[in-house]
Every structure is written in C-alpha cells, then in structure tokens.
Design a protein that fits this description.
- By secondary structure, this protein is an all-alpha fold.
- Helix content is 48%, strand content 0%.
- It has two helices and no strands.
- The longest helix is centred in the last third of the chain and has 21 residues.
- The chain is elongated.
Length: 67
C-alpha cells in the first residue's frame, strides 16, 4: 500500500527493525506474537520490498505475488 501511494519503501525493513528494538513487547507476549518471528519477518519484508522494486523497474502493476 505504501509503494502504491508513492511512499519510498527503500528503508522499510530498517523502520520495522527499529520498531522491534523500541517495542520488543510487540514481538512476544502480545497479540502481535502471532506474527512470524523476527528472522522470518525480516526475510519476508526484504523479499516483498525486492518484489516491489522489481515491478516498479519493469513498469508492472504493484499487485502482490507473495502470500
């Protein structure tokens, strides 16, 4: 959604890493604990961002492929 709105997603993984460091309770022991563990989460964020950048470079619509 951010990329479709024209927001630069280059540092999106950095943002989420900083968020996890500032608010570690959102990773474990809360409603957000159902999300993937940090390593898997960062890998997914990087993969999605790479997909976005590739599609932008090819002029393709930003329709998600990853599930």
């Amino acid at each position: 959604m951010l990329a479709s709105a024209g927001v630069d997603t280059t540092d999106v993984s950095t943002f989420w890493r900083r968020m996890a460091a500032e608010y570690p309770q959102t990773i474990k022991g809360s409603y957000a604990a159902s999300h993937p563990a940090s390593g898997e989460r960062w890998a997914n964020i990087e993969a999605v961002n790479n997909e976005i950048l590739a599609k932008k470079g090819q002029g393709l619509p930003l329709v998600p492929e990853r599930k």
